[in-house]
Amino acid sequence: MTEELEDRKSQGCSPDEMLDNTPEAVAMRRTRAARAEAAAKAAAAKARAEAEGPKAGSLRRRIIIGGVLGLAAAARVFSKVGRTSQRP
């Protein structure tokens, strides 16, 4: 390792350049670049999905779920009204 440092010093590399070219620094730069690329792809996919709008099945699913929840709420209300009206 010291021989490599001596070779770089003789070539005119500064200490900052030597630290920037260590295997750890190179791996860190590659990792950061890969993360930035993945984040950019995710942002592009999210923007594309928002531009397309909701899927056709999602509206149908919402209507079905709304109907089921509405019927359950109505049944609950009617059951309470039925109990109070039968008391003397």
What does this structure look like?
- The protein is mostly helical and 88 residues long.
- It has two domains: 53 residues; 35 residues.
- 86% of the residues lie in helices and 0% in strands.
- It contains four helices and no strands.
- The radius of gyration is 33 Å and the shape is rod-shaped.
- The model has no long low-confidence stretch (mean pLDDT 82).
Question: Got a strand count?
Answer: 0
Content-based structural category:
mainly alpha
Query: What's the multimeric state?
Result: single chain
Would you identify the regions where 5 or more consecutive residues have pLDDT less than 50? Answer: none
Mean pLDDT level: 82
Tell me the fraction of residues in β-strands, as a range: under 5%
Number of domains: 2
The termini sit apart by 98 Å
Shape descriptor reads: rod-shaped
Question: What's the SSE blueprint?
Answer:
Elements: H1 2-11, H2 15-20, H3 23-52, H4 56-85
